[in-house]
Design brief:
By secondary structure, the protein is mostly helical. It has seven helices and no strands. The protein folds into two domains: about 45 residues; about 100 residues, Orthogonal Bundle (Helix Hairpins), CATH 1.10.287. The chain is flat, with a radius of gyration of 30 Å.
Length: about 170
């Protein structure tokens, strides 16, 4: 049975439907498509003639990175202070360390961009210090995660819980 002869097609394209009959639905779709094509045809030359700042991409500033780092740090501290699950606490510590990494990279980039102005004032700038410290922090965070996960697995085997309140190392 063809789709046009089925009961659902008759109900869909009957006079009770909001679109009306099938011909008006097709006509309505064609008019929408022609409107979109004509709008694009009209807007394309205007966009191509636009000034370069209009087409320039967004470049975040130091303040944007500091705000993101602050938000990561606050979420990490809130996770450490409010949660009782040790896995969530470890993830919150990782958020805090990533906030520090973001600060180091952002300030390193800022110092690299403003190197000439800072050397004119007599300040020696090494823009590689931020990425080097970031690599060290990532290595320490990986080691902390591995050791912490090992401790959590050992405690879970003994206590069968990962809640901080129920873990007591002095009582076996």
């Amino acid at each position: 049975m063809p789709i046009a002869d089925s009961e659902s097609a008759r109900v869909c394209f009957s006079q009770e439907s909001p679109i009306g009959n099938r011909q008006s639905a097709i006509h309505w779709g064609d008019s929408v498509i022609s409107f979109i094509v004509s709008a694009l045809a009209y807007a394309a030359p205007l966009l191509l003639q636009a000034e370069p700042p209009f087409l320039k991409r967004f470049e975040p500033t130091l303040i944007n990175f500091l705000m993101l780092s602050f938000l990561l740090f606050v979420v990490g501290v809130a996770g450490v202070l409010s949660r009782r699950n040790i896995i969530i606490i470890f993830m919150s510590i990782e958020l805090i360390l990533n906030a520090v990494n973001l600060n180091l990279i952002a300030f390193s980039r800022y110092l690299e961009i403003n190197r000439d102005a800072l050397t004119a004032k007599g300040l020696a700038v090494n823009p590689l210090a931020g990425p080097v410290f970031t690599i060290f922090i990532i290595v320490v965070a990986a080691a902390e995660a591995a050791v912490g996960l090992g401790i959590v697995i050992a405690m879970f085997r003994n206590r069968e819980t990962v809640a901080i309140d129920e873990i007591d190392l002095l009582k076996w």
